[in-house]
Amino acid sequence: MSLLLRRIHLYLALFLIPWILMYAVSTFVMNHRFLFHERPPEPPPKYTTEREFTYPGELPAGATSQQIALQLLATLDLDGAHAIARPINPEKLIIYRQHPVSPRRITFTPADKKVVIETLDFAAHSFLERMHRRRGFQHDYLLEDLWAASVDLTIAALIILSLSGLWMWWELRVTHRLGGLALIAGIALFATFLAVM
Amino acid sequence: MKFPHINRRTHLYLGLFLTPWFLMYAVSSIPFSHNDYFEARDKALNQPLWTKTFDGPYDLGPIPESSQLKSLGARIVRDFKMEDSSYGVYRQSPVQLNIYVHTFWKSTQFKYFIDEKRLTAEDRRFRWEHFLTGMHARGGFEDPRFFNQLWAVIIDFVCLAFLIWIASGLYMWWSLPALRKWGWAAILAGVASFALFLLRL
Questions:
Q1: What single string gives the DSSP state of each residue in B134-162?
Q2: pLDDT of residue B67
Q3: Mean pLDDT, chain A, as a whole number?
Q4: For residue range B20-51, what is the model confidence (pLDDT) as tens digits?
Q5: What percent of chain A clears pLDDT 90, i.e. is strictly above it?
Q6: How far is B91 from chain A (nearest CA, A)?
Q7: Are residues B16 and A100, on separate chains, in Cβ contact within 8 Å?
C-alpha cells in the first residue's frame, strides 16, 4: 500500500508538472493584477489583421448566426471553441475563436461577404489567465473535453497528492512533531481567515 | 544536515502547512469546472437566489469618475455596518451603480439608482459552491486591510510552494535511479499532452 501510494504520488506529480507550473505562475499574475494590467478603465484588447477577403462560398438562406459561424470556421480551417459577440448585429457577425496562444476575431459582413480575420496581440499575462480560466465541458469539441478532463485530473491529483502526502508523513515517525506543528499552524491560520474574512 | 535531507523536509513541511489551501483550491475548482451541473441542481430547488432586505431613499451625492467609485462603496458598507466585508463598485449603466459586498460566507448586492436617489440591497442565498468559488477567486493586494493583505501574501506563498514542490520533487526523483525510466515517461507524456493542447485547442 505504502509503495503504491508513493509511486502514485511521484508519477502523477511528474505527469502534471506543466499544469501545476501554469496554475502557479498564472495565479501569481492574477494576484498581482495591476502589475500586469492597466487600472480600469482598461483599453480594449489590441488585434492585428491577419487577412481580409471576400468569402467565396454560399451560405444557406435563413442560416442562424451559429450555423454561419460553424460554416465559416470550417471553411477557414479554424473549427474549434468559439463564441459569437452579443448582441448579435445583423450587419456584422463577430466570432471569437478561442485559442490559448493566438485567439482570433473573425468579422463577417453578410452584405458584401467580407471576412476579416484578426489575431489578438500576444501578452504573456493574458495567455496565462486564459489558460487558468479555461475549463468545462460546454463545447462540442473532443479536444476541449480532453482539456476539461485534464483540469479534472489536476483537481483529483491535488487531492490525491495531499492525502498521500499526509499518509507518507504519518509513516515517518521522526517527523510527527514538526509535521504536526506545521499542519496545525496551517489549519489554524486558514480557520482564522474563515472567521474574519 | 545535508541538502537531500533539507530538501525532503522542506517538501514535507511546506506541504503540511499549506494542506488547507491545497485542498481548498482543488475542491473549489470542481464547481468552476462543472458549473452547468451545479447551476442545474440549484435551479431544480426553485428558490430565489436574492432576497431584498432594503429599498428606500438614499443620496450618494455627486457620482465621481468610474475610477473613483470605490469611495462610494466605503460609505455604503459603513452605513450598513458591513465594514468587515470586501466590496467592489461598478457602473451598471449611466443611471445605475452596482455595489457588491462580500465575505467568504455572505454576499450582498446594492443597486443605486442615480436619478431616483434610491438604493436597494439584496442578500444572496448561501450556496456551498459560491462559498468555495468565492474563496478560490479571492486575491490581490488592492484591499489594504490586514487580513486581505495577508491572504494575498499566502496566495503568493502557495504559488512559490508549487514551484518549490516541483523542484524538490524532481530532485528526490532524480536521487532514485530505479525510478528514472518511468519518471521520464511521465514527464514526457505530460509535456507532450500539454504542448498538444497549446497548439491545437
A1: HHHH---S-S-SHHHHHHHHHHHHHHHHH
A2: 65
A3: 90
A4: 999 999 999 999 999 999 999 999 999 999 99
A5: 64
A6: 11
A7: no
Residue of B13, B163, B191 lying closest to A182 (CB–CB): B13
Quick one: A59 exposed, middle or buried, by C-beta within 10 A (0-12, 13-18, 19+)? middle
Residue B150 to residue A190: CA distance in whole angstroms: 11
Q: Are A132 and A22 in contact (CB under 8 A)?
A: yes
Ranges assigned E (strand) in chain B:
50-57, 86-93, 96-102, 107-113, 118-124
pLDDT (average), residues B42-64: 88
Q: Are A158 and B15 within 8 A, CB to CB? A: no
As a whole number, the mean pLDDT across chain B is 91
What is the C-alpha to C-alpha distance for residues B166 and A14, in angstroms, rounded to an integer? 8
CB contact under 8 A, A162 and B15: yes
- Contact present, A155 and B24 (Cβ < 8 Å): no
Count how many Cα atoms sit within 13 Å of the Cα of residue A155 in the half-sphere of its side chain.
21
Is the pLDDT at B54 greater than 80? The verdict is yes
Phi, psi of A35 (to 5 degrees): -80, -25
Q: Is the dihedral of CA A14, A16, A21, A23 positive or negative?
A: negative
pTM above 0.80, yes or no: yes
